[in-house]
Specification:
UDP N-Acetylglucosamine Acyltransferase, domain 1; 3 helices; six-stranded parallel beta sheet; about 190 residues; alpha/beta; 21 strands; five-stranded parallel beta sheet
Amino acid sequence: MKKIILLGGGGHCKSVIDVIELEGRFEIAGIVEKFEGESSEVLGYPLIGTDDELEVLREAYEYAFVSVGHIKSNSVRVKLFKKLKKLDFIIPVIISPLAYVSKYAKISEGSIVMHHACINAGAKVGKNCIINSKALIEHDSVVEESVHVSTAAIINGGVLVKANSFIGSNAVTKESITIEGFVKAGSVVT
C-alpha cells in the first residue's frame, strides 16, 4: 500500500482518516501540522513533522493530502494545496466506498468525497474540494476548485458553484443558477 501524509490534525482530519482507511488505497504515514506541539497524534496516527519540513518529507513520501477543513475561510487549505503542488507531491482524489460517484462525473485532484455523498452524471468537481457526508451534487453541476459543500447540502442540476465558495449544511439550491461566496446552513438558494 502506498504511504500518504495528511496536512492538518484537527476535526476534519479525523473524517479524512476514516474515509482513507475505509477506501483502503493508502497507508497513512502520519500528520503534518503548522507548528510543533500544535497537535498530538490523531486517531493513533503520529505527528511526523511541520509545514516547514515538507521539503524534507517529500524525499520520503510521494503522496500527500490536505486534511484542514474549510468553514469561514479556505485560505489555509488553498495555501497548503499550492505548497504540495510546488513540491511535486501527488495529491490523490479520495472517495469513500460508501459514496456514489457516477462514472460520467469528474472529480479533480485533492478533492474528497465523504461517506454517503452522491455525485451524479455529468457533474464536475474541481481541485481541492470537500464534498461532505450526505451531500448531493446533481447532474451537470460544476463545483469549481477549493469549495466545501457541507453535510447534507443539495446542489441541484446545472448549478455552477464558483471557486472558494462554502455551502452550509442542509442548504438547497434551485437548479441552473450560479452561486458564489458563503451560503449559510439551512438556506434555500434561488
